[in-house]
Backbone:
């Protein structure tokens, strides 16, 4: 049985691949019939010579009669294999069941294109019946020299519309039949450095800034989500776009669709994953988008969801066919006003999600319909986004699951989360000593009528609420501590000995 590789890390032990040119005896353009005509002429001439030699003792009329007979199925199959690049592709884990794909040199990908094969067969031998065409395809499938392979499942190389991009070396290469891609992104990769295009009064980075209220962590996560969808890797997480209507999440989702291409996307809300035949519609798809999941759904069995997320085997069943097992790991992206109810281990569910919160409100006065209808469809903009996303060097998501914004969305917010958000959003200092933080916390609890945690418990839990802009710090002087920050918590000023050093929390980025 063919070995199936399950990838769990970006670029894990992935070696540089060879980009082989198309062999001289293979067609370089499936749509160019002059080259095919030459192949057919050569084939029929060789067949005539073979029959003449084989029946050398027979009359000319007998040989002409043999030549008028239909080409045998096995000979037709061998002829097709001689000038087409063919592979049997299987991602199955439990049986030798594969599909015949033909490499399209102009597209740069392998396609399960039975119609094209049938056209070539009929063009070569017009007298074939439908049944005989099917017999030729069957003979072609069972030719021993057609290799059985897996489609490319790693993430180092990304198939763009016009080339293959190496995310390690940041280099583009021409398409090659030696790397088995069955799909590609719909946008060209441009080798020259691109700037964000100005489209009337729209500029992409300004739009992201508006979309996420200037929150640098969410802007960074938005870029990481774009990259994850483009390269087909989601760090074994389900991507959630969460927010009310009119917050821009639908436009962001449409941008992703434009980058990937509709033919590479399956549409399915989370409650559709439980359908018996659901996984059969995922074959050949790199992304599952669920648009606006209803908030009242209750997912009782999330096993298929998690298996697809982690790349574990799933059962695939077409109607009236025997089920079989496949490895699949499409990126799962779902949008909703609120996170739906999912039955099961809450810790495991939380661990498998990555959430991007949309909270900017666009009303009729400040909503620009051209953004969704026009600007995010602009080829120059899409080329810029693709290039920047591919150059990010994405390995894992910026995890904002412990942020106040996300916890509010999931109804998981605590008094300590509220205090932490209040502290870091108001204070202008670049360093906050432990003594000040504890003093501010006790002042906060006093105002709110809350019983404070003990100092030991407070500092243990407070570390968990730190945003990506702050981290714990060793002893520091108070030069970066602004005493004016105390006014946000009490009318009484906070005092410390300025000559001493204190442990606390330092700002990494603003």
Residues:
């Amino acid at each position: 049985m063919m070995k199936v590789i399950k990838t769990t890390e970006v670029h894990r032990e992935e070696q540089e691949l060879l980009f082989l040119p198309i062999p001289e005896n293979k067609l370089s353009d499936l749509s160019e019939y002059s080259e095919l005509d030459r192949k057919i002429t050569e084939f029929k001439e060789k067949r005539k010579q073979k029959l003449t030699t084989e029946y050398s003792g027979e009359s000319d009329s007998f040989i002409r009669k043999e030549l008028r007979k239909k080409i045998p199925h096995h000979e037709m199959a061998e002829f097709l294999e001689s000038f087409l690049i063919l592979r049997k592709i299987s991602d199955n884990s439990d049986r030798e069941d594969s599909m015949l794909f033909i490499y399209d040199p102009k597209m740069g990908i392998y396609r399960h294109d039975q119609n094209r094969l049938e056209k070539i067969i009929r063009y070569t031998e017009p007298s074939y019946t439908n049944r005989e065409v099917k017999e030729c395809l069957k003979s072609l499938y069972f030719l021993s020299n057609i290799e059985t392979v897996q489609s490319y499942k790693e993430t180092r190389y990304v198939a763009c519309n016009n080339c293959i991009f190496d995310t390690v070396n940041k280099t583009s290469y021409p398409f090659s039949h030696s790397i088995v891609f069955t799909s590609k992104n719909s946008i060209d990769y441009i080798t020259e450095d691109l700037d964000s295009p100005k489209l009337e009064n729209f500029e992409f980075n300004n739009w992201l800034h508006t979309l996420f209220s200037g929150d640098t962590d969410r802007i960074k996560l938005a870029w990481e989500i774009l990259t994850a969808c483009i390269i087909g890797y989601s760090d074994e997480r389900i991507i959630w776009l969460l927010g009310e209507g009119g917050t821009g999440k639908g436009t962001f989702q449409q941008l992703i669709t434009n980058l990937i291409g509709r033919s590479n996307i399956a549409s399915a809300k989370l409650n559709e994953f439980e359908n018996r035949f659901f996984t059969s519609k995922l074959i050949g798809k790199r992304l599952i988008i669920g648009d606006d999941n209803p908030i009242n759904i209750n997912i009782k069995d999330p096993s298929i969801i998690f298996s697809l997320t982690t790349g574990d085997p799933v059962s695939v069943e077409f109607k009236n066919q025997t089920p079989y097992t496949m490895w699949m790991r499409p990126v799962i992206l779902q949008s909703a006003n609120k996170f739906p109810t999912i039955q099961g281990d809450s810790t495991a569910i939380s661990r498998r999600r990555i959430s991007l919160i949309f909270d900017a409100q666009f009303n009729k006065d400040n909503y620009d319909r051209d953004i969704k209808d026009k600007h995010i469809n602009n080829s120059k903009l899409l080329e810029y986004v693709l290039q920047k996303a591919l150059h990010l060097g994405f390995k894992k998501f910026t995890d904002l699951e412990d942020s106040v914004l996300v916890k509010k969305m999931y109804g998981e917010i605590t008094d300590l989360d509220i205090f932490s958000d209040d502290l870091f959003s108001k204070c202008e200092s670049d360093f906050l000593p432990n003594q000040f933080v504890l003093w501010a916390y006790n002042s906060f609890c006093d105002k709110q009528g809350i019983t404070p945690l003990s100092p030991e418990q407070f500092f243990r839990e407070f570390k968990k609420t730190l945003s990506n802009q702050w981290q714990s710090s060793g002893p520091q002087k108070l030069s970066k501590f602004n005493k004016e920050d105390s006014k946000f918590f009490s009318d009484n000023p906070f005092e410390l000995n300025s000559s001493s050093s204190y442990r606390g929390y330092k700002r990494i980025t603003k």
In short: Residues 1-11 have pLDDT under 50 and may be disordered. The chain has three domains: 1-184, 204-405, 414-507. Residues 414-507 form one domain.
